[in-house]
Amino acid sequence: MSSQQPRSSIDTVPYQPPDAPSDDFQVMAGFTNAVPLPDGSYEKPTANGANGHTRQPSRTPTGLGAEPLSIVILGASFAGLACAHHFLDHTITHLHKTPTAPRYRLVIVSPSTHMYWNIGAPRALVASDLIKHDDAFIPIEPAFHRHRGHQSTLIQGSCTALSTETRTVTLELIGHQAQKRCSQLTKRASQAPDTSTPGTPDAKFQTLPYHALILATGSAAHSDLLSLHGPHYNTVGALNAFHARVSAAQRLVVCGGGPSGIETAGQLAAYLNYTGRWPLRKRVKRPKQIVLFTGSARCLPGLKGEAGRKAEAQLRGLGVEVRHHVRVVEVREGFNLTGRTDVVLSDGTSVVADLYLGCTGVEPNSQFVPARLRDAKGYVRSHSGTMRVDLAGERVFAVGDVAAYSRNCVGDVYGAVPVVMQNLLKDLLGYEVRLASPYGEGREAMEGLEDRVYVQRRVDSVLCPITRFGGVGLWKDRVIPKPFVYLLKGHDYRVCKTNLVAVNGMSPYRRT
Ligand SMILES: Cc1cc2nc3c(=O)[nH]c(=O)nc-3n(C[C@H](O)[C@H](O)[C@H](O)COP(=O)(O)OP(=O)(O)OC[C@H]3O[C@@H](n4cnc5c(N)ncnc54)[C@H](O)[C@@H]3O)c2cc1C
């Protein structure tokens, strides 16, 4: 080939400077993060040894020495654990497709070191021997022992702020170990607070940069008994306190006509007011009065009418007083020195309860998410097909109860996890390719990688154990016979599946 190539038409195209690479890109491609001086020039690099023979350490490691990029998962329950195991089992093995590909580490953040099996909460709250704490609270860290070869860290703490501009999360860390783990992650990126100098920020709050972020912070029930509120020992304490008071309580008031309220009222009546097993079942001599306020026209208003009617018949059969069209408007705990609760009702009356249980729904754990990323009810506005939080920048996803698409059931978690993980893989590979060839070549490596789209199942499947051996259930929109409710859920509230969820990241309703 001649070296005298004809001058190409490129000369005639006006010069377009390429887009400034992102911070991540600069680190990985070997640039420094030097800040220009006011006149636009850069400070001359200090030669090693020129400054009194003191070696100037580079603040930004580059190339192979660069820090791994953090894939941060906030939340470690059904959604967070499923994503974490999927990442370490599958995603990581499909990355590193280019010579300049970064290394990755998985960072899981959760205020609780244990997952709470809240599926079983309606029975666990009745008495300590029905579902033992060891079954209801599953330690998270041992569930990751099988991934020992990979870089992953569990940090105990809550996310208190998310900055989509700096691509960082601020964490409130619980305990010394969490502070140490987080400092180790952030020290090379100079984000860790310097606690050696007085007056510097507390090590309890640290800021962690993320390369990709999965929001899986779920939701919190109003009652301390029904979901985690911070570390798991808060819930353990609430359950113990409830168990201690339940035997002396005479009137128990449950509020909420949805599945949690129905199940809770049923489980309390079935285990506190009856002894023995069918057909030798006997009502106790001094049964407790259990009152359920549904707040609507019938039980289970969100489901087919037949399911609600059956649930009500079973509750009444157990002696539960079911009252419709009445809402609880105020709950005055400890309103007098007896420690009882005054429950003020929408019909102008009030009822004094020895124990009150609010099963009135859940709120998303999204207080740390910027308001523009949340809908009117506080749920994270993610794309209902791709699960990306488009307004939060690249590689940010939301899955599970915290995301707006979810109807707050585990079915909506496990249907969406493969979509999140496929689209995350695509985005991470896209970044690797851009890093290796910033001017657009090498795109063929991305061929065949399409966005996966989530399609929500429109049919209802709900199981509500009410009596010891029965309950009501809808399976794919059909009301199923009572024994199936017992077999599918009621016999042990699926605690036999905790390992499947915590260690393998799979659905507790998966057929194995
Ligand atoms: C009493 C009850 C019974 C239920 N029974 C059923 C059932 O039988 N079948 C069914 O399909 N569904 C049931 N559900 C719903 C089901 O529990 C939820 O859909 C499921 O828990 C959602 O999982 P998730 O991982 O999205 O969120 P969650 O389980 O709510 O987990 C959220 C995680 O995020 C963590 N977290 C919270 N805030 C922060 C923060 N700021 N920073 C970092 N981490 C944070 C929490 O510690 C936790 O690890 C029930 C719910 C309740 C309350």
UniProtKB/TrEMBL annotation:
Biased composition (Polar residues): 1-11, 48-61
Region annotation (Disordered) ranges: 1-26, 38-63
Pfam families: Pyr_redox_2
Keyword annotations from UniProtKB, A to Z: FAD, Flavoprotein, Oxidoreductase
Gene Ontology terms for molecular function: electron-transferring-flavoprotein dehydrogenase activity; flavin adenine dinucleotide binding
Annotated Gene Ontology cellular component terms: cytoplasm
Highest rank taxon of the organism: Eukaryota
Domain FAD/NAD(P)-binding intervals: 70-407
Family stated for the protein in its record: Belongs to the FAD-dependent oxidoreductase family.
Stated name of the protein: FAD/NAD(P)-binding domain-containing protein
